[in-house]
Every structure is written in C-alpha cells, then in structure tokens.
Amino acid sequence: MDSSGQLSLFDLADETTQENVKCYLKEMLNNNRQPSGSELLLEVEKKFGWAIRWDLCNIITRLLAEHRIISLESDYLQELIDPESENSILYALNGSPDDNKVFVSTLDYLLEEGQKYKKSEAFLDMINFIARFKRYSPYNNMLVKIQNPHCSFFASRSDWATRFKRHLKEDATPMLILAPMQPVMLVYDLDSTEGEELPKELLEFAHFEGQWNPSWLQNLTENANQYLIRISYKKHSSTSAGFATIDRTIQSGKMRISIHDELDEPSKFGVLCHEMAHIFLGHLGSDLDRWWPSRRNLTHHSLEIEAEAVAFTVTQRLGLQGSSISYLAAHLTGNKIPDGVSIDLISKVAGKIEEMARGKVPIPKRKTDK
C-alpha cells in the first residue's frame, strides 16, 4: 500500500500467490475450461485479489515455459497473452467490461426450457433411438466416417430389420467395417433404409422459420468470405445439416463450412450461424492472424451449447424460430450450464455474426498488413 492507503500498481502478488495461480490455471485446463481473457481476469481477481491482474500475463508466460503443455492448451494460453488478440488479458485490462446480462438470461432460458424438454416423450423417443447405435467399435465408427463423412447412424441389414423395423432401399450403398470371426461385414446408413417412422426431432433439428430476409444469408456468406471462410452447399445425410472444418484445399483459405443443400434458406442461415459460431468461438483453433481464439480443448457438450446458444441468439433477434431447445437438451447433463461454457464469448460472437448478417463489415486486417 502507498501512504494514502490505496493499492499501488507496484504491489504485485507474492511468489506463493503466483504459484497458487499457476496451479489454478493448470487445474482449469485439466477440467476442459478455456474462458475468455476478460472472464479469466475476473475469475482470478476474485479468488486471489485485485493485484494479481498485473502479473497474470507473466504467470501464464512462465507456465508455458516451465511445464509440458499439450498444443491444444498452449495455443489457448498464447492467445491470452497476445497483445493483438481481442481475447487477450491485455485487451481486457485496457477495455471496459462487457455487460453480458442479456446473454446470461438467454442461457438461463435455454437451460430451463431444455430441462423441461428432457422430460418430454419426444425427447425420450429420440434418445432411445440413438442409444441403439452403440454396438460398433470406435475403429469401425472411424471406418464408416472415412467412407461417408455425413453418416450419423449405421447398422447391418439384419439389425435394421430386427432392431429398427426398417429395410434397405433398392439402391442402398453398403459400407465395409471389420467384424468378429470374419474379415468384413456390410453396414448401411440411415438414408439407405425405409420403414418404421423416425423420431421427428432427428429430421427437424435444423429447421428454422419466421419472417425471412434473403439478404441475411447473402451478407453473412460474403462477410464470411472476407474472413477466408469458404461456404459450400452439398448433399448431406438427413441427420447432418452441416459442419465446419479447417480448409486444406486452397493455400489462402482458413476454414470451410459445408451445409446441406436441401434445406430452405432460413434453415441454411440458422445452420450457417451455428457453424460460424464454432469458428469464431475458437472451437477449431486459431491461426497467425488471431481473427478468432483457440479453444479446442473443451468438452463436446460445451462446444455444442456455445455454438447453438449463439445461433439461437442471432436467429431470435432477427425474428426466426428454430429447434435449439430440442438440440441443446441432448447436451445438458445437469441442472446448470457446464463450467466450460463462456458467456463472454457467446455474447461477442453472437453480436459479431448478427452484424455480419445485417450488412457489410470491414475486411479484417492480417498481421502481415499491420
């Protein structure tokens, strides 16, 4: 303290506190939590005192140097101390805290409605259907994904008939997997079958409707291209609306998004919001330009809750209604939002995507241009 009794900027945390913070950060990473820079700053200040804010970047730097950190965690920590990243601690120190009350309310609403939906007959039908696809090994699941990346459900001819009351279509295309006591066996995806009615939620999970403005999809697509995100529309399975991945096909591309081409425009827009959210939330990792963070080590449930919360917020604000509640219900494992979910980043990304849908946004600067 100085003579006036005020905390001095030079009253940095002692070595014991710094070591405790380092342990806290390691435990946070082990628990699959990767909060935004501003969330982490508030979190450690609350636990270890206000003075720790001035030493937090140095503690993270030492943590990176002193301990063996896997790449998924290292990328995230590097982002936190990058002075040019909007997700960094330095950016949070220099800026004013965001008011995320509206997004806390949104998540609370999603949680409440999701818990109600989990008690519904429709949800139980969907979960019971999905649960019947657990008899194949992870290796065989990988083999199927190689042959058909959009396949969500597959089974043998006999399993489709006896367990699901469905039979193969005339032009059904088989896939090969390994089988006990024989070299290989043939399996078929859901779209190769017909018969007993499927749970409605499996087929309508990507449906959005409401007052539609075609410019939203066009604007979002054009702005995504400015961020070197390539968007394409292709045939997917009936239970795959789209996906986002790293773009490895062209040297100048960063990410690509594929969306089911048989969806109507409002639904394509809702799916695009979800997949764009995955990218801007850092779920696929960052790159040298730091246009989005690197947060690849979250649980699958946290990833999907964050992305769908963004899509829900954007579409609701534009007057569209979707099936976010039924989709999120499958990822809610308790009576609260998982600790790994970042409200701060959900709010920022939802605002960013809404802005990109409403009109043209400035072309992001590359680090080589700065």
Distance between the termini: 40 Å
Stretches where pLDDT is under 50 for at least 5 consecutive residues are 1-10
* Sheet of most strands: 3 strands, antiparallel
Q: What series of H and E elements makes up the topology?
A: HHHHHHHHEHEEEEHEHEEEHHEHH
What's the helix count?
Answer: 15
Number of strands: 10
Rough shape?
globular
Compute the CA-based radius of gyration: 23 Å
Average residue-wise pLDDT:
86
SS strand fraction: 5-15%
Counting helices, strands and paired strands, the structural category is mainly alpha
- Percent range for helical residues? 40-55%
Strand order in the sheet with the most strands: 1-4-3
